[in-house]
Task: structure prediction
Amino acid sequence: MQRILASTGLLNFCRFPKQVRYFSQHFKPQTHKVSVKRNSNIGLSVNKMATKFNREQLESLLKHRFFFAPAFDIYGGVSGLYDYGPPGCALQANIVDVWRKHFVLEEDMLELDTTMLTPYEVLKTSGHVDKFADWMCRDLKSGEIFRADHLVEEVIEARLKGDRIARGKKDEPAAKTDKKKKNRKKKVKEIKAVKLDDETVKEFEIILAKIDGYTGQQLGEIMEKYKIGNPVTGNPLEKPQEFNLMFQTNIGPSGQLKGYLRPETAQGQFLNFEKLLEYNNEKMPFASAVIGKSFRNEISPRSGLLRVREFMMAEIEHFVDPENKAHPKFHTVKDLKLSFLSREVQEAGKTEPLQMTLGEAVEKHIVENETLAYFLGRIYLFLIKIGIDPARFRFRQHMANEMAHYASDCWDGELKTSYGWIECVGCADRSAYDLTVHSRKTGEKLCVRQTLAEPKIVKEYDCEIDKRKFGPKFRKDSPKVTEWLQSRSQAELEELSKELAENQKIVTKDISGIAAEEVEIPGDFVKIEKKKKTVHVREYIPNVIEPSFGIGRIIYCLYEHSFWCRPEDTARAVLSFKPLVAPTKVLLVPLSNNAKLQPVVKEVEQQLKQVQIPFKVDDSSASIGKRYARNDELGTPFGITIDFDSLKDQSVTLRERDSTKQVRGSIKEIIGAIRNITYFGEKWDEGVKNLKEFEGQSED
Amino acid sequence: MQRILASTGLLNFCRFPKQVRYFSQHFKPQTHKVSVKRNSNIGLSVNKMATKFNREQLESLLKHRFFFAPAFDIYGGVSGLYDYGPPGCALQANIVDVWRKHFVLEEDMLELDTTMLTPYEVLKTSGHVDKFADWMCRDLKSGEIFRADHLVEEVIEARLKGDRIARGKKDEPAAKTDKKKKNRKKKVKEIKAVKLDDETVKEFEIILAKIDGYTGQQLGEIMEKYKIGNPVTGNPLEKPQEFNLMFQTNIGPSGQLKGYLRPETAQGQFLNFEKLLEYNNEKMPFASAVIGKSFRNEISPRSGLLRVREFMMAEIEHFVDPENKAHPKFHTVKDLKLSFLSREVQEAGKTEPLQMTLGEAVEKHIVENETLAYFLGRIYLFLIKIGIDPARFRFRQHMANEMAHYASDCWDGELKTSYGWIECVGCADRSAYDLTVHSRKTGEKLCVRQTLAEPKIVKEYDCEIDKRKFGPKFRKDSPKVTEWLQSRSQAELEELSKELAENQKIVTKDISGIAAEEVEIPGDFVKIEKKKKTVHVREYIPNVIEPSFGIGRIIYCLYEHSFWCRPEDTARAVLSFKPLVAPTKVLLVPLSNNAKLQPVVKEVEQQLKQVQIPFKVDDSSASIGKRYARNDELGTPFGITIDFDSLKDQSVTLRERDSTKQVRGSIKEIIGAIRNITYFGEKWDEGVKNLKEFEGQSED
Result:
């Protein structure tokens, strides 16, 4: 197998941020306009002026409101590890809940909960032990460690920038490129204005364009040729070495059972294939799914929530007949118009995606088959359902040299952020790779047996064994040798028949579980030839279509897509989460601390609990406006105000977060409206159409 | 700190199965009767004859229906690691969902999602690096490893059994004791009939009674004295050595940042205390919660789902003022009558729990305070809500020598199974232990500042510093030294004042972040004495009440409590899950494959989806009875049959799993009844009161 490194696309979605690198030149950072209407999706016509996106302000809000925090903060933190605080955790739980309903329940998938601890053998077989690595190089004096491709990229960019300064050019491209690394600790601390010769500039530009494709040796050669060392001290660096990105541990007390923390949830699903097929009454196609944490020991993670060492994934493995990748529900998505940045477009050096329906994409062979296209559609619908901005979404096809070792095709669902385009969902065709390697390793048949409607006559290799000769020669290994011969695939039998024809014997070291290292089977022991056969059962190893979601990345993008500031006061920030995923749905605000209001507050609480709508009470002494501002930052879509009029007629006020519009009605009416808007997809106008507009309270 | 081992009660719930050991003599295995009515809680009067519980039959069902399977099965499996298949996974998700609603939402807790990877420093401080261990001993010849306490126990039990045989006694007690180890691979393969002298018999009985309390050295002495070696080969064993139960790994590429997989979720909550308090607007008391996986590298896990290396926990840390442990909602649980196996009862050698209300338990000081008691009540209500049999539940208080190093009191919620009483929930008072140690280690104040209603005059140690002298002597360390002095607690100031009085100086190595290793503060630099002070703010470190749930263990117990066989045919097993937690709520069964039935099936599907009720369709050609039998095993509470009459009037049949009773009504009526029974707590009779009884189809 070809050696392909993690950093050059081993895994279909988590080798972040490839797209930042590919397209950063074309991405205009921080200038997209934020329209409330588009995000809130409560359906209000709030066409306030858009404000400029400010990442620092968003991040400070997220930390201040404890959406997340560096893990082990009081111990100084560990890079790449983050905790989710209450609102972040609730948002995640709601998104996972929507995911489960959208995929597992609606598509009748078989959800599993498999272990994270994984023994060495499994990941050796899957290819991860050998290939799941990045290149690192070490400063032998200081002990500092760099990720080789990142270092080369940054140093060369700095030199190009220095060159432009020396040439007196306006530093356009470099400035843009830099934006993407705002959150990385810079390795290159200062830019020196040194003019390069034209030849070098060209070479550097080529290197940058190809940076994701280099092997460790190539990176080492570049570092040597251009004298790239530790950018701060100037020390030379060790040659790039492979660093496997899996966390290793020992299982059990003996220290002999080596294990890893899973780098993806997929393997646990493949290993259970037989049981899943049986559970599904042997029916094909079907899908399994896992929602859970995976782990990658990044060399030096530095992009906040986008590149972490422990992260939540949701992965689907859809097992399908390789000869029939039609999907019975394709018609439900075929008219969705989406953006496709296909391989061809990219190879032509373009960045403008094709706009077309999924149906057209399949027809034009841009997306290979209906099943793959069906999942692209479902992925899109899921993201829109949780509030991702459709205008900042596209599908990008992997380049041939970018794909993981197991993939035959792969589309990434990418979301546009201030960091550039971020791959958040991968949708790969893993072909029969994984089932084949595990089956070969364990000797378990991981395949489907399909009874044919009509028997078929085929010409197939057949292996005839002269059993009497086996016993005397192979003795107690005899059954194993026989079994080995009988379990060869058609392709293998073809090879063996050639070997027999050439050498009049078969020599193999592949038979496991026997004493002899090498077995020699004489030509007169066995006859392999093509024969006509009537076949009643077709046996095949399914292909696997794998939609794989990085939940943490989706959450970060959702933060960016939902964030805006009130134009009248840019210090007042809002997170316009859709009610369906908002951490809390309702804030209960008694107008004052007056005890008389309490019974109504309790009554509203009671009724909200009855219909299971998550809410919070804020009975602090802060002004109504302040209390709402706090909750706008938390993304709470609705506010219920209890005032002294509520005592008269049990009426309360409902406030909508994005527009700050208010309506008034009975407790029951108001809660009914919240429920219909939150869980049953009604728009605001629809939900409150029977309620009176209210302009009693000011927010100040 | 005293050295206390994991196996002697370090952690409040996962040192399984202590209770099996304590009470196995008193537990009569496999004789409890299973009453359908008690478990189903759909409220049907199904007083069919109880059948005997058969663990083998249950386990075979659980594996066959893929509730769970050994992880990496096709690779031979890894002990202590299991995957949950679709029904097990759905059951777990539903239980977690109920847990989240019952605790996080109803109690307004602050849920976090914290990382599993945990750096060494944190777990060193918490005490886990030093104390979270079991004793193991190794056969130096074969390499085999034994858990010391288990080995001693088993060998001594075998010898006592041999003695009884030699004495011609009926082997009563031993037979019972053995039941508990049915699932352990036996270390002692054969029992030799050797008579022991009376003295030894007595000594052995004492050892068995104390087996959980021995240190490694004591276990070693016992092994030496009674010549306990490898029971199969007779080889001598190495002395017991500590084996830390945490999985170790390295974070980052340098290999210098040692880390562990968390053994509990609690630490991540403690470390976030300050942020949580701020998020809660500085209000006390409050609780945080985490639902997630934890890991323990058991020496040789052998009790199926009850002792595993990777498991789902749900933990609450309730932070409370140590001077006020009243709970405002205690009245809501105070009349619950529960079983308490208190410390006193156990010390008196009894096993009959006290029966009383939570109110009485607090009054009589059996449960120490209202907050602890409140959570005991909530734990009980949660378990009943998900279908645990109240008759097989009790709370058992930890013995003084059994508690974890951080706990000042602990009650276990124990569930009775065929393995004995299993601790499934721990409810510990962790006092201020964790916040104190982390605060001391990091220098961060993890405390609450409470503005007093009225200023208080107190006599307190005060530290007066002659600042002019500090600068010249300590130079740039001066601020750190000053800060250190000023941040001492009252107890520490008392110590320092004594030191000053004795030595006229303070010598310390405790000041972190300065150049000098040791600092000497002369007596004339500082004055520490008691002074009257007016205090406006009270500062305190909260105590922590920790309800901690082992979700996997609860699930196993729920399997046992829900399992029974139809008396008319004991091969027909049923899992009587409550509809609320059942993996699938409804099975759709078209009477035949006739295409005419399809539109009605689709219509039912559509309506079920609309109200988000999880269902499955079984349109296989098996008989109706077979299809229902399959789903009884999966615990699906309802079946909807579509027959040819459905074509006439769109009516369908609803079947209840436990009673197999059937009623008939329109699709809308039937789905309404399912919804009310599943999610709104209605009993069957109530839910279907407007529907006609139906006796059309037989199940055979």
Q: What stands out?
A: The first helix of chain A runs from residue 18 to 23. The radius of gyration of chain A is 30 Å. The domain at 584-693 of chain A is CATH 3.40.50.800 (Rossmann fold). Chain A touches chain B through 81 residues (CB under 8 Å).
